[in-house]
Amino acid sequence: MLLSNQKRLKIRGIIKRIAQDKSISLEERIYVERFAQHNSTISLWLKKANSFRRNGVKNDGGIDNLLQSLGIDGLDKENHYNPNEDDISNWFGGAPDWLKRS
Known about the structure:
Layout: H1 5-19, H2 26-36, H3 40-55, H4 63-70, H5 88-91, H6 97-100
């Protein structure tokens, strides 16, 4: 899905406000989510913004900083896969559409 420069700037602005824990409207959240479901780059931006909002920016150079910079959900313990309790297919079931097709 190709984005015009105007749409990209609008999405980046909304995502920046999410990262700073500023308020956004439901319409703005839906707008960003719609693009994130079909575009891996926007999905990554959104994951990083949500991580920054929840955990603050990690600048210590440790593993948390690496996980956050890669947009990996490793900082949230409830998102970790537990092979004794979780079914791998269900665990990946919440993946965005672009990843499920891979």
